[in-house]
Please model this.
Amino acid sequence: MSQDVISLQVEKRETTGKAVKHLRKAGTLPAVIHDHGKPSINVQGDFVAMNKVWKQAGKHHPVSLKADGKAYTALIKSATFDPKKHLLTHVVFNAVSATEKVEAEIPVRPRYEEGNESSPAERSGFLVLSQLEAINVSAIASKLPDFLEYDAEKLVEVGDHATVADLIIPEGVEVKVEAEHTIATVFEPSALAAANEAAGGDAPEDAPVPESEQGTEADESGNEAEDKPGGQKEA
Model:
């Protein structure tokens, strides 16, 4: 599980409020750094570079930030997008300590035997529905994994399922979800279709609810994220 260093250079930002739209038109993205209860720091950076960091780091990989002559290790707390263009418009970073544990949302994915691209159940024509796309964990930033895997080879017959207890957890990582929580379940395609039809087109209770795009949509300024002092928990 990679912990490659993701670096980003930003600079202090004086422009705030609705005026930040001029920054975006010039290819600059506004952001803010929250730092352990200290006053938040308004920053800005190149849109292309920041968008690349967002795609690489998500909300789980530490980012090495350099801002206004100072260095920070930070996690992306939130990212806002233009509701029409779906382009990144604002990023909130949380500075973290190198020695204290932090919580982060880590993607979950199946692990297959070498040479396979699906589980035994899928190779037999069954459906495997994911019911947990990501999971909250606690660890120091340098120990946060890029993803967590479970052994999908155990999914063979209808009704087989994988749970949080099946995840392969690296040393130093604490999972914050109950071990019995279901990750994925095997279904018979025809039974699933019949249940869906009987429910009037709605998915059955067992089926997962699709997660929305990571990040949130906000107004043009994104300033609601800048009003929170660094380190304080949002209500």
Notes: The chain is about 15% helix and 40% strand.
